[in-house]
Amino acid sequence: MSKFFNGLEKYIYWTSIPKMGINDIVDILIVSVMIYLIVKWIKTTRAWVLLKGIIILLCIAFAAYILQLHTVSWILSNTMSVGITAILIVFQPELRNALEQLGRKNWVTDIFSTESRQEEQEYTARTLQEISRAAIEMGKVKTGALIVLERTVALGEYERTGIPIDAKVSSQLLINIFEHNTPLHDGAVIIRNNRVVSATCYLPLSDSVEIDKEMGTRHRAAVGISEVSDSLTVIVSEETGGISIARDGKIIRHLDPQGLRDELSVLREEKGQNKKFKLWKGRNRNEKKN
Ligand SMILES: Nc1ncnc2c1ncn2[C@@H]1O[C@H](COP(=O)(O)OP(=O)(O)OP(=O)(O)O)[C@@H](O)[C@H]1O
To answer: Which residues form the signal peptide (predicted)?
Structure first.
């Protein structure tokens, strides 16, 4: 009987919640807020895609450990230690940016804000109308253009390669920026929160072999930015006047005015089933066209 009570006592000891003081609660709260802010920050950078890759790698490593796959475990553990150094080098601009933001941030509104960045980035019908009007007009006279619409992934590092503008989006402004032989016509325009934030931006070029050889660097740059972010880019070809859209590493070409408006309307729709359906519908139609 005493053995039973001893066992029970031990069990209760191990399962009981340890005494918590006020400092423990503060400790837990600080760590929770830190984790929340880190995840929130990662979601707005290219690092989000990388984080998903790391989680998959960790799952594989765990499975290899459970199944006693020694070689796979050895390879993974060695690459991971090198990988951490590589991450620090590759994401140096993001890390620097995060530290800079740390000093500028309004922590109180950021923590208690219920609005997500996705909602902030919603484009008004007017903005999308102005963008499509500008693209159609530029297409008619074969003026080359590259217009990037930022979504949840911040494009700060590309914005900084250009000239700051900060002006309300209008078709006249966009047409003026891309006018031949003007100082701002080269490179890309970045749009955020219904404002043109920067012009002459340099975008990363895609090295995808799937891109049609007849497409030059303007189209490659549009695909490139769509590979590293969830942005949507409107491209007007200087050679043909054709309008295309790049998103998710793919390019949708030969858009007519209605097709362009449909593609852009994706940015206005609500999250969920409705959006997915429209996106799929639009894609299918344009894929058939191509
Ligand atoms: N990395 C880049 N980032 C931003 N803009 C770029 C980049 N590379 C090229 N461009 C823009 O594209 C222009 C060159 O376009 P190019 O003729 O090579 O491409 P294209 O895809 O064939 O386009 P188009 O059909 O308009 O000729 C440059 O003058 C510049 O404005």
So the answer is: none
ipTM of the complex: 0.94
What does pTM read for this prediction? Answer: 0.64
Only one residue has tokens 């933001």, namely: 101
Determine which helix (DSSP H) or strand (DSSP E) holds 149, and give its type and residue range: strand 145-149
At CA 172, angle to CA 167 and CA 243, rounded to 5? Answer: 105
Residue 188 Cβ inside 6 Å of ligand 1? The answer reads: yes
Q: Go through the domains of the chain in sequence order and give each one's CATH number.
A: 2-111 (no CATH), 125-274 (3.40.1700.10)
3-state DSSP helix/strand/coil % of the chain, to nearest 5: 55, 10, 30
What pLDDT does 277 receive? 42
- Ligand 1: residue whose CA is nearest its atom 20: 216
Query: What is the per-residue pLDDT across 244-271, written as a single tens digit (0 to 9) for each?
Result: 999 988 999 999 999 999 999 888 864 4
Q: 47: CA distance to ligand 1 center in Å?
A: 27
In terms of Cβ atoms closer than 10 Å to its own Cβ (0-12, 13-18, 19+), residue 269 is: middle
Which ligand 1 atom is nearest residue 219's CA?
Answer: 21
Measured CA to CA, the distance from residue 224 to residue 207 in angstroms comes to: 8
Q: Please give the average per-residue pLDDT across 161-171, as a whole number.
A: 95
| Ligand 1 in reach of 184 Cβ (< 6 A) | no
Q: Which positions ≥6 away from 257 have C-beta within 8 Å?
A: 132, 136
pLDDT at 289: 41
